[in-house]
Amino acid sequence: MIDELDRKILNMLIADGRQSNRVITRKLAEEGTRISERGLGKRIARLERQRIITGYTAMVDMKKVEMGVSRLVIVKLSSPKNFVERLEDMKQYLKDAPFCDFSARSDGGFDWIELKFFNNTEQANKEADLYRTWFGDIIEDYRSYDLDVYKFGWQLFQENDFNNFIQSMQRKSEEKPMIKVGQ
User: Fold this and answer.
1) Domains contained in the chain, number
2) Rounded to the nearest 5°, which phi and psi values hold at 104?
3) pLDDT digit string (tens) for 24-69?
4) DSSP assignment, residue 177?
5) 58, 86, 101 — which closes off a domain?
6) Which domain holds residue 4?
7) CA distances from 146 to 67, 121, 124, 143 (A)
8) Are residues 92 and 27 located together in one domain of the fold?
9) Within this chain, do residues 104 and 27 fall inside the same structural domain, yes or no?
10) Which of 11, 62, 133, 148 could form a disulfide bond with 67, CB atoms 3.0-4.6 angstroms apart?
11) What percent of the chain has pLDDT over 70?
């Protein structure tokens, strides 16, 4: 289990995994949490040993490296006789594909969600055509949407964090005057 301090440390590392322990201890102190650099190092080492921290990565501005097409793909699957084998083929394809950043099975109207990044639209469309050709036997419905990404990343939060955010947004909305339609 992790505690509130672990959660704060993890969020700081999620935001910037290259921060030094000195910077993190200073930020924590500014929030009212005091911990030594050595104590912080021990906590991070424990989180790594427990495989809560599984690695560190860089966040890249995809447009600046000419990966300007972000595509969300949702798929509804059919069930042919060899479905299990073909699904494993599809999973392996998505796991190996260098352009697929996120792939997950989902509940609801669609069975699979993918987030893919491409250099250009031609490349994205070529992959979509090939994907539907290779896995068309298990695809009942395929939809794709090019995205204009405003935020990419995530944080750990608890119920209290969620409630505080929602309440602050409600207060802000109550402070703003309502604009009537037609004005």
Assistant:
1) 2
2) -155, 145
3) 999 999 999 999 999 999 999 999 999 999 998 887 776 777 777 9
4) P
5) 58
6) 1-58
7) 12, 9, 9, 10
8) no
9) no
10) 62
11) 95
